[in-house]
């Protein structure tokens, strides 16, 4: 077990510590998405959709992210009877807020090498942020909750459900004019290892 895991366990021992861990994870998650967006080499499937929507409506990426999250939570709670936690609500609102607030602060590098470096930094940071907010144990994010609810209802394995949802979202976002690029493919290949690394840092899923 890494040195971060005992520290995370100590933080999770109090409600205030868990909330702090959740908020830190959500802030870093929003930062990671902003880094990838401004690298301009392609983005994650959901961001392809969010940016695609902004091509047609006078909305920011962060606001589209919030509205999408609300729709997902409403569907999973009302139709699929999935439990909603504090972490779910904060996930919906804060990641979108951080996406917009951080927009003026993140560089927009011109050199292709720096753009890829910024993109890969975003992927790694997303993995770390995922470990932090999941370790808080205050509720799944809306997209994770949708995956879990569909698994419970259909009995299909999580990888099949998640891949199907991501592919559908990607195609819809691309049809709307979202930024599909090589970075989208790189994200698909690297996000799993990055999330595994982040979860491992916080001891999530490991036996004591």
Structure description:
This protein has 208 residues and is an all-alpha fold. Helices cover 73% and strands 0% of the residues. It is built from nine helices and no strands. α3 crosses α4. It is globular and about 45 Å long. The mean pLDDT is 88.
**pLDDT < 50 stretches:** none
| Oligomeric organization of the protein chains | single chain
**Main beta sheet strand tally, sense and closure:** none
Distance between the termini: 9 Å
What's the total count of β strands? 0
Envelope shape: globular
Q: Which structural class fits the helix and strand makeup? A: mainly alpha
Measured on Cα atoms, how large is the radius of gyration? 17 Å
Helix content: over 70%
List keywords for this structure.
208 residues, mainly alpha
Task: Record the SSE blueprint.
Elements: H1 4-11, H2 15-39, H3 45-54, H4 61-78, H5 86-101, H6 112-135, H7 142-154, H8 158-175, H9 182-201
Helix pairs in contact: 2-5, 2-6, 3-4, 3-8, 4-5, 4-7, 6-9, 7-8
Brief synopsis:
The protein is an all-alpha fold and 208 residues long.
